[in-house]
Amino acid sequence: GGASWIVGDTFYIFGGVFKLMGGPTMADLWQWNVRANDGWTLVAGSVLPNDAAESGANPSARFGCTGWTVGTDLWLYGGQDANGVRLADIWRFDTLAGAWTRVSLPTPTD
Predict the structure, then answer these.
(1) Are 44 and 93 in contact (CB under 8 A)?
(2) Dist CA 31 CA 90 (whole Å)
(3) 36: Cβ–Cβ under 8 A, 6 or more apart, which residues?
(4) For residue range 12-65, what is the model confidence (pLDDT) as tens digits?
(5) Which long-range contacts (CB under 8 A, 24 or more apart) does 30-39 make?
(6) What does the angle CA 4 – CA 68 – CA 20 come to, to the nearest 5 degrees?
(7) Residue-level pLDDT at 31
(8) For 105, what's the count of Cα atoms within 13 Å in the CB-facing half-sphere?
(9) pTM (2 decimals)?
(10) Rounded to 5 degrees, what are φ and ψ at 12?
């Protein structure tokens, strides 16, 4: 599976495997406002299977990732790509601005 979040009355889902194991991985972020009940809306990312997000503006396609919220921001960590390669990147989606940002962590020191 992908990641999911709830912010206020809005439910978000990102990525995952399109079909049962062996299907393509996805890099799409969708939202559904449960109060308005207006259906699912593509917010960001690609609906193309196994998208590598070469532009770097969005997380690449993945499954098995972890998500959490801080305020109205959606956070995403890791997962695996379509080839099973483990990812260790961190992304933040600003729900107010509607944009992903890759988060750089400082290098540990001795």
Answers:
(1) yes
(2) 20
(3) 9
(4) 999 888 765 567 888 899 999 999 988 999 999 877 766 655 567 889 889 999
(5) 33/9, 34/9, 34/10, 35/9, 36/9
(6) 35
(7) 96
(8) 9
(9) 0.85
(10) -120, 145
